[in-house]
Amino acid sequence: MMIRLRDLIVSLLALIISSPILLIVCFLVWKQDRHSPFYIAERVGRNGDTFSMVKLRSMIINADSSGVDSTSSEDNRITAIGHFIRKYKLDELTQMWNVLLGDMSLVGPRPNVKRETNLYSDLEKELLTVRPGITDFSSIIFSDEGEILSDKADPDLAYNQLIRPWKSRLGLVYINNKNFYIDLKILIITSIAIINRKKAIKLIHSILKEIECSPRLLSVSSREEELYAYPPPGLDKIVTHR
Fold this sequence. Notes:
The protein has one domain (2-221). The chain has helices spanning 2-33, 80-87, 96-101, 114-117, 137-141, 145-148, 155-177, 180-195, 197-210, 215-221; strands spanning 38-44, 50-56, 105-107, 133-135. It is mainly alpha-helical.
């Protein structure tokens, strides 16, 4: 109840405070092609129920018709204003509407598309037992997801090999250790990440050390080494097709 009240108050205030910026960006998105500035993305939420996530549109119209779910920073579907939106995470501001509605929480595992959740192991399905969030450990650790996938021939496969194994593990760590104070720390660090990503990663890494994550996950989460393919939690083989 306390978390839901927090989500309601913060999301409402965030929408009110950010409304001048959102109105300007919405106009710029509309001006480029005279289409809606919003993109309604179907995502899987708590208990496997789907919901419509509201995002500022950063891609061309009908970009999802390509069937590619993972987006690299060099994806030619991203518009000029879309690069700005993605750089400053403005598309996440509109998701406060979903928090207000109760589809999402401020903090929690990021929601995924159904094509991805269909691939989840039994262990990963625990990620669907809580409300998805706007931010969490992995949102900061892998905030450069677009750059990670930028030179990959198959971004979806690369995501499943390089990011999903650690993103899912970080989500499970959050679920097993979540409390009001960890949420507060994540929210503060998310704000820091906009200005200083390296500092934010170090702060998240210190939290993960405190809750005694596995040495392998700690090492990957420091982002001081190149990412490598690894099996998702609950599976013993690296994903070879998507």
